[in-house]
Design goal:
The chain is mainly β. It has a single domain, classed as PK beta-barrel domain-like (M1 Pyruvate Kinase, Domain 3, Beta Barrel), CATH 2.40.33.20.
Length: 296
């Protein structure tokens, strides 16, 4: 007999306009085929066009984005704000995200100098100068077909998938373990989800396949958002970066290793599920939306 769906609530919505910089929590945001609007639209690259992240440059966590009046505003301690038009793009360039070599747009010398100056304390020899680039919307970058079941699922500068889905109970469970060790709790910024769901048990998302969301008060024939949860999210060292200090504290990964080794990925540490967009492109998501989660 087919398992009954679980009722869920969309409790938090997050985007990360510049890959690996601080996140931005939104009350409402448009769903695109590539995920949430403006999520991972920009990226910092080294002198060779290779993307950089908090893994190497933890100070990236201190760069705070804001979307305001048609601009991306970036703020960081000790720096004047950097303002970029949302539709700005200067020169074509080539960049690399993991195994993908892509066409992109360089955002110019002022942005490059801003990032290089702020991240200089973390820069190892040979990595700089840094550049800021923008995703080229004419490029189709696909999630790995082996995990999407052959579905052509586009994404931008994410690590590989349109969305990261996390249950609030999973975060609560991590915090219970941290606090049992005398460590302070962490918030969602450490785990960098796009969607945080209420109504699920701890890590119940691991066993889900489909998530549907429907706007309150929408007519019955309104398009329904449908997401497919396709791959457990493997974890690197970014959860060990303190988002308030921009330094590594190495206190989350040791706890995750005690209970989150995932046999589906040969013992890799996982937390949350990567998802792709299957229906509902152009719909507005908002915190508080209700939905159904269907077991795999």
């Amino acid at each position: 007999m087919e398992a009954a769906p679980l009722a869920v609530t969309l409790e938090q919505l997050w985007i990360y306009p510049v890959k690996s910089c601080a996140g931005l929590r939104l009350r409402t945001v448009e769903l695109l085929p590539t995920g949430l609007q403006w999520d991972r639209t920009w990226m910092v690259v080294d002198a060779n066009g290779e993307f950089v992240s908090q893994r190497e440059l933890p100070r990236m966590a201190l760069i705070q984005p804001r979307l305001r009046m048609g601009q991306l505003e970036l703020r960081a301690p000790g720096m004047l704000s950097l303002h970029l038009a949302l539709d700005a793009a200067e020169a074509p360039c080539r960049v690399r995200v993991w195994d993908d070599d892509l066409a992109a747009y360089d955002m110019g010398d002022v942005a490059a100098q801003w990032f290089t100056d702020f991240l200089a304390p973390d820069l190892p020899p040979g990595m700089g100068p840094l550049r800021l680039v923008r995703f080229d919307p004419e490029v189709q970058r696909l999630s790995p077909l082996a995990w999407t079941g052959g579905v052509h699922a586009p994404t931008t500068f994410s690590d590989g998938y349109a969305l990261l889905v996390l249950s609030r109970a999973a975060l609560d469970g991590l915090n219970a373990r941290l606090q049992a060790l005398g460590q302070p709790a962490v918030d969602a910024r450490r785990l960098r989800p796009n969607l945080v769901l209420g109504g699920l048990g701890p890590h119940a998302e691991d066993g889900l396949r489909t998530l549907t969301l429907h706007a309150d008060g929408a007519p019955p024939d309104a398009p329904t958002v449908r997401l497919e949860l396709v791959k457990p999210c493997t974890r690197c060292t970014i959860p060990d970066v303190d988002p308030q200090q921009g330094v590594r504290d190495d206190r989350v990964s040791p706890v995750l290793r005690t209970y989150r080794a995932d046999a589906r990925l040969k013992g890799a540490i996982t937390f949350g599920m990567n998802a792709i967009v299957r229906a509902g492109q152009g719909q507005m998501l908002h915190e508080g939306m209700h939905g159904l989660a269907w077991p795999a």
